[in-house]
Amino acid sequence: MEQRRVSVPLVPRRPWQGRNVLLGVAGGIAAYKVVQVARDLAQLGATVDVVLTHSAREFVGAVTFEAVTGRPVHTDLIAQGAALDHIRLAKAADVICVAPATADLLARAAGGRSDDLLTAILLAAKAPVILCPAMNDGMWAHAQTQLNAAHVRDVLGYTLVGPATGPLAFGEGVGAGRMVEPEEIIEHIGRALEQDDVLRGKRIVVTAGPTREAVDPVRVLSNRSSGRMGYAIASAAWRRGADVVLISGPASIELPIGPAIRRIETADDMAGAVRAAIRDADALIMAAAVADFKPAAPAASKIKKSAGVSAIELEPAPDVLSVTRGDRTDKLRVVGFALETDAHEANARKKMLEKGMDIVVLNDATEPGAGFEVSTNKVRIFSKDGASEDLPMMSKDEVADAILDRLARIL
Question: Between β-strands 220-221 and 95-101, what pairing exists: parallel, antiparallel or unpaired?
């Protein structure tokens, strides 16, 4: 199934909301992309201070960044009334991200230079630093650039994001040196802003999306799951520092940034992938909508319309939570979902008991704005100790963090 980016309006939310992000921009052609980074951060609720090197101003003007952040842009190390800006800005930042980080910027950062405002801020900073390299592929491959990159990563403790492989500047073809896309930069900034000591370093397996069961080589049985809830959980867990494996059916939205991806098609595929992934995991979150039934005898060739089909014989598909129960370790905590149309609480608690779950998240399939194919959800969370909690209608991103908050209590 074709992956497509679904445009969801950005609103202030965790972990960007109310946080101070210093966005440094060095002088490379990729600087134009950083305008979107600044805009998106502001829409997510961050206070964004932009620092331009003098060469960056040759590519993007300060007024552009001022327009998308609503804040003045800083450029000079020594300016009238702003002689200590490098100290003030460094202290105020919760995270510093430099994009693009050019070969020259990497060299000056590795050498501990402070000959402009941005490098002076890096020396004065105690906040996490993210550098997003961007340059010609030959410059990135140069031995000195590689030494500089290794030094800022391994000695100074900065996080390097990229570079990606793709089209370079006009006429330069394709190579390693392209700045990663704004969406990836945003996610890495979010990961640096998170301070979840419980989930950090934990291995979490998340399943998401539908499964598809073949009727013939062309047709399938499936369901309306978009994968959005599971993807939101996987993204949030990764931002909170977890080592996330996302086992995804053929979902209709773009894969999240950060988690390791395992692609599957059928319920049997899902069971096998989960069995392998949970052996060393701390938690399994089963957000996938796995098929309950599959065709007993899929046709080897396309069934012709003219032939007609009076019935398709079905047989049970594997219940992933049940068939992988024997593969769980003692430390594994299990979160599942129950999509119900009646006897909601009774069915959810029964499912939690029968399938050995620690937490079950109840969805009412008849609730407007909840369930499949929407960006919001309204859930009730039940725990093995008997506790329950109703959450109001909220975005699936917010629901994801609420679920992870409950999981963190039992890890």
Answer: unpaired
Angstrom distance (rounded) from CA 19 to CA 193: 8
Question: What pLDDT score was predicted for residue 5?
Answer: 44
Judge whether residue 282 has pLDDT over 50: yes
Report yes or no: 358 and 335 within 8 Å, Cβ to Cβ.
yes
Active site residue 223: yes
Using one digit for the tens of pLDDT, what is the confidence trace for 308-336?
777 888 999 999 999 999 999 999 999 99
Domains of the chain: 20-193 (3.40.50.1950), 203-410 (3.40.50.10300)
Quick one: how far is CA 354 from the chain centroid? 32
Closest CA to 185 of 67, 62, 51, 40: 40
| Overall size of the chain counted in residues | 411
Contacts of 143 by beta carbon, 8 Å cutoff, 6+ apart: none
Neighbouring C-beta atoms of residue 303, cutoff 10 Å: 16
Residue 347: what are its φ and ψ, rounded to 5°?
Answer: -65, -40
Burial (CB count within 10 angstroms: exposed 0-12, middle 13-18, buried 19+), residue 353: exposed
Contacts of 34 (CB under 8 A, 6+ apart): 23, 25, 60, 99, 100, 182
In the DSSP assignment, the letter for residue 181 is: P
CA-CA distance, 30 to 168, in Å (whole number)?
10
Condensed to tens digits (0 to 9), the pLDDT of residues 101-158 reads 999 999 999 999 999 999 999 999 999 999 999 999 999 999 999 999 999 999 999 9
Q: Cα–chain-centroid distance for residue 315?
A: 36
Contact 37, 182 (CB under 8 A): yes
Q: Tell me, yes or no, if the pTM score tops 0.85.
A: yes
By DSSP bridging, strand 159-160 and strand 129-133 are parallel
Which of the following is catalytic: 20, 223, 347, 363?
Answer: 223
User: Rounded to whole angstroms, what are the CA distances from 111 to 55, 102, 107, 142?
Assistant: 19, 14, 6, 17
